[in-house]
Every structure is written in C-alpha cells, then in structure tokens.
Amino acid sequence: MRALLIVPFLSSSFVWAQESKIFKQEELDQMLAPIALYPDSLLSQVLMAATYPSDVADAAKWSKAHPDQKGDAAVNAVADQPWDPSVQSLVAFPQVLATMEQDPDWVQRLGDAFLAQPEDVMDAVQRLRAAAKKAGNLESTEQQKVIVEQAPQTQQSVIVIEPAQPQVVYVPSYNPTVVYGSWWYPSYPPVYLPPPPGYVFGTALVSGIAFGVGIGITNALWGGCNWGRRSVDINVNRYNNINVNKRLNVNQKNVNWNHNAQNRRGVPYRDANSRERYGKQVAGADNRKEFRGRDSQRDASRQRAQSTMKDRGLDPAKGREKLRSDPQTRERAQAAAKNIDRDQARAKAQNIDRDKARAKAQNIDRDKARAATQNIDRDKARAATQNIDRDRARQSVQKRGGDSALSGVRNPDRAKQNFNRGTASRQAAQRHTGGGRAGGGRAGGGRGRR
Fold it and tell me: What is the per-residue pLDDT across 136-178, written as a single tens digit (0 to 9) for each?
C-alpha cells in the first residue's frame, strides 16, 4: 500500500495579520467540524445555503412538514418557494436540514465565514479531513470514496470525498470530538450537532462515521469544491435541469458561485467588507442601508439636521475640515472642550456639595423637631406626675382629718360661729376669775377691822 503524505492546506493569504480577519483559525475549525467530512458536492451546497439563514430555517420547517419528500422530487416540490436555489437543493436531504435546524446561530456564523473568508473556510475543511484521516477515521467505504490528490493550481495535496455511486448520496454522521482524534484547540471545542433520531443506524458513531439510508439524486446537487482556487463551482447543466425557472445563461460547464444578496432577506452582514460588497446588490437605498445595519429613520433625521445647519450658514463638514487643516482652530476647539469638561465637573461638584448641605440641613431640622417633641413629652409627663402626686397628698390629708385646718376656709359661716363661741368662752372665764378675787379681798379687810 502506498504511503500518503498529507500536507496541510495553507492559504496564500496567511501573511495577513490574524487579528484583521473576522474569524480566527481555531474558530473556523470549530464551526466546520460538523460538515467537513460531507461529500464535496453536499458540502458545497451547505456552504452556499448557509449564507441565506432565513431561507434555511423556512426550508427546515417545510421538510419537517413533508417527511416523505426527498431527493430530486423534493427539490421540484419547492420550485415555487422564494428561497435561494442552494437552499432548495437541501430539501433533497431532510437529515441535513434537520441537523442545521438545531443551531441557527451556527448556520449564520458559517455563512458569514464563507462570505468573508472563503479561502480560509476551504483550508479549514482540509485541515479537518487530514486530522480525521490521520486518526484512521476517514477511509473509502461502500458509501463514499476518499481520494488524496494534488490540486492543479497549487500542487498541494488535498482530500476529496465523493459518493461511491454518483447518483446515490449518503450523509455521514459522526461525533467531532472522536472522529478527529485529540482536538487541538481545547479552548474552542468542535461544534457537535447530534444526528436527528431515525437517520443513523446502530451505535457506529462511537467508533467513527455512520451512515443512514442513501438518497437517490440526479440533479439536486449541482455544486462542487474547487480545491485549487479554494472556492465553490456550479455545474451549469445540473443547475439548469433542476432550476428550470431560474436558469443560468452561460455557455460554460462550470462557473464560480456568487452570493445573491437579493435572497438574504434582511439578515445583516457581519463584516464591513461583506456589507460594502453585497449591500450594493440590493435594490433601493433603504434596502442597502438595512443590509449595512443602519437605521434609515436615524439617517433621515441626521440629514435633516445637517440641512438645517447649512441653511443657517453652519456646515459641519467645513467645520471638521477646518479643524483638520488649521492647528490654531483645533487647539481652540480642544481648549473649549476642556473648558466644557471643567465646567461640567465643577457643576457636578457643586451639585454634590449642594445635595450634601441640603441633606445635612434636613437632618438638623429633623433632630431639632425630634428634640422639641421629646421636651414637650417630658414636660407633659412631669406635669401629669405632679398632678397625680398633689391629688394623692390631698387625699392623704383628708383621710387623716387634717382638712379641719382648712375647713374654715371652705365654710366661712362655720368658722365665724366657732370664732364667736371661742370668744364668749374666754370672756366668761375671765369674769369668773376676776370676781372671786375682789370679794375675797373685801371680806378679809372687814374681818381685820373687827
């Protein structure tokens, strides 16, 4: 058996700075892992269709609602649908659409990567295929042929996967965490989309690749991978045979595929280059702005404001140009901006101080009010206590009969009677005492003279 040397598929644009690209190499390997081992013809259809994520979602719903439709018959059944032909071709393979339906975000990222970095995407597919072959999980079977050949343009070794029978296509199912061996980017584990129930036989996924029922097709797959140019080609004859209402008017057998922005259906493009390149294909200025991710109402308001300023003799464009060309004007503008910032900082500080003073004053007033209330309550309590003590003292005196001293005050007539009675008693006592002394004297004298 002849030994095969697998050379990594390198891009001629590798000299670009990695940070200038939308997706890094590890991200591309991560997102291409679920489909890198598809046959080339099916892989190309998936890459093209992923650039129309809304169409893919609608096609997946249609396929689920028509489970018995597959192959060329299914593609003919959706000929009147407004989807891109690349998406219509996928209804021939319900398993593929059911798998893509699991992760719409992954579909959109895959399409964005293929639009922004098509060569890098094709390189990632070759890296993954080389890893699977090195791990012993990518070999020719009765379902597919695995061919290692040299790309004519680059003379680099590439791995081509074709159906074993041209008109019967088997969709491979595999676990990316197993089939590629030890994954080389631990921080970017491969995307894994488990096969939908009923499409894979047994547990062959544990050891590598498994296949379900083959799909018979004639013209449903009209795409192919051009590994020399690292792009996707269209087989014109097959395309026109299945897309009778959207024929290509060309005389070549194969043509390079081009994205049709008219079928993007409002899904914004991820990067500026794609917005600039494909946004121009959309009819109408409003649609172009939508594809660039702009707000048309906001732009209209900005234009009205600029027109108003020009009518008043103020041209923002001229002002910006003057700032760029006149250093003194720029310095004055910067100084004015600094003054504005300084004034804003001062005003903010003043507001903070004012708020603190107001809060402090409110706290003081609150404390005073609380103290005054406490003093009033204390005085009331003291007065109430004094009244209680006074009443108790009065009651005590009354019980001891001590109120006789005050009875005269309370009853004047009785006091006067008592006073008169006392006076009469004293006078009577005085008369009685004084009369006895006079008689005795006289008698004594009389006896003496006798």
Answer: 999 999 999 999 999 877 778 999 999 999 999 999 999 999 9
First CA to last CA across the chain, in angstroms? 199
pLDDT tens digits for 74-125?
999 999 999 999 999 999 999 999 999 999 999 999 999 999 999 999 999 9
Instruction: Report pTM.
Output: 0.61
State whether residue 108 is helix, strand or coil. Answer: helix
Q: Phi-psi bin for 295: left (phi > 0), alpha (psi -120 to 50), beta?
A: beta
| Euclidean distance between CA atoms 265 and 342, whole angstroms | 49
Phi, then psi, of 172 in degrees rounded to 5 = -75, 145
In tens, the pLDDT along 352-368 reads: 777 777 777 677 667 77
Least Cα distance to 38 among 100, 80, 85 occurs for 100
**Interatomic CA distance for residues 282 and 264, integer angstroms:** 9
CB 221 within 8 A of CB 184: no
Tell me which residue has tokens 């939908």. Answer: 196
pLDDT digits (tens, 9 = 90+) for 258-269: 999 999 999 999
**Ramachandran angles phi, psi of 256, nearest 5°:** -75, 140
Q: Are 162 and 144 in contact, with CB atoms under 8 Å apart?
A: yes
Nearest to 247 by CA among 256, 255, 237, 260: 237
Task: Report the C-alpha dihedral over residues 268, 274, 277, 281, rounded to 10 degrees.
Answer: -30
